[in-house]
Description:
Layout: H1 2-17, H2 28-31, H3 34-40, E1 46-50, H4 53-70, H5 80-101, E2 105-109, H6 110-115, H7 117-127, H8 134-149, H9 165-174
Parallel strand pairs: 1-2
Helix pairs in contact: 4-5
Amino acid sequence: RLMKKYKLFIQRHLFVYGKSKIYLSKNPYFTSLLHTLYKTFPDCNIIGCYRNPQQSIPSLLSNMHEAYLLMSRKITSNNHIEKYILMYKNYYTIMKTEELKNKKFILLNMDDISKNLSDVISNIYKNFNYKLNADFISIIQTQTKKSKKYISKHKYYLKDYNIDPDYIDNLFFNNK
């Protein structure tokens, strides 16, 4: 039901803004629903993004910590931190697996995006057979300069949640 409704929203959006446009959904929560997305939108191309788990996991936990506070709960109770780590491991595994087997899927590392935005976008357009126009190339070049200078104000660390970095590395990179 969710995908049917979502498809209707996109169709309405394209009807208003142009049927020849390419619809871009920047929704990381949908990325792990790849098979459902492909079933609903058989001709879609998907781009997944990820960061090193040692950066992503404390960021995720920090975000969820705020939600837990709203519910007067602690993220440290009932093994929730471990559940989030395993959830991210599942997400990461789905992305890495899809990257290897599907030409309609591109997996991008967030560090590559910030360091090489112009190359990343050019490769996306090339891989998906999209056309880049001169005006957009100019915009990309301007944004590339900005992205290279960007420094996040957010700082999250595994130690804030008593998580051993070696545990994360072993879970994600040594446990096939």
